[in-house]
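[job 4471] stage=fold_predict status=RUNNING
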Amino acid sequence: QGRVLPGGGEALDKRIVDYVRRHHAIEIGRPTAEHLKCTLGSAVQGGVQGSTTAKGRCLRLGVPRAVEITAADVQAALAPAVAELADAIREIVESVPPELASDVVENGVILVGGGAELDCMPDALRHLTGLPVFAAESPGTAVSRGVARVMEELDLLERVAS
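[job 4471] inference complete, writing C-alpha cells
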C-alpha cells in the first residue's frame, strides 16, 4: 500500500514561494524557489548553511527587489512539508496488516521522487518516524524506471495482479 503526497517537489517550491512572500514581502517565481530549494534546502535545520540573493517583485511597491535568503529561511519553509510526510508514513504503516508492517520495520521505507533528494530527507524522516528510511537510487527517476520495467515484464505484473 502506498500514498503519494500531491505535488512533490513542486509543492516544496510553493512552500518556499509562500514563505518568501510572508517573511520578505517579495513575490518570487517557481524557478527561483526551485533554485533556493536545490542550493539551500534541507529537511533539517542546520543541514545546509549559507545564503543567496533572490530577485522578485516587492509586494508593497510593485517594483523589482532583491533580498538575501538564508538556508534557515528555506529550511523553515520546508519543515511543515517534512512533518506532513512523516505523518503520512506513520499513517500508512499503522493502516497495513501486521505482517506488512513488520516488513517495513525490517526493510524500511524507500523514498522516490525529487523530494527524496532534499538534503537530509531520509535522516529527518528516520528521526521523526522511528523507522528505517532510505532514498531510492536516483530517486527522481525511480518511478519511471519502475514503470518501464513493469512494461518490459507484463507477464510478471499479470501474475502479481491475479
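[job 4471] summary: The mean pLDDT is 89.
[job 4471] exit 0
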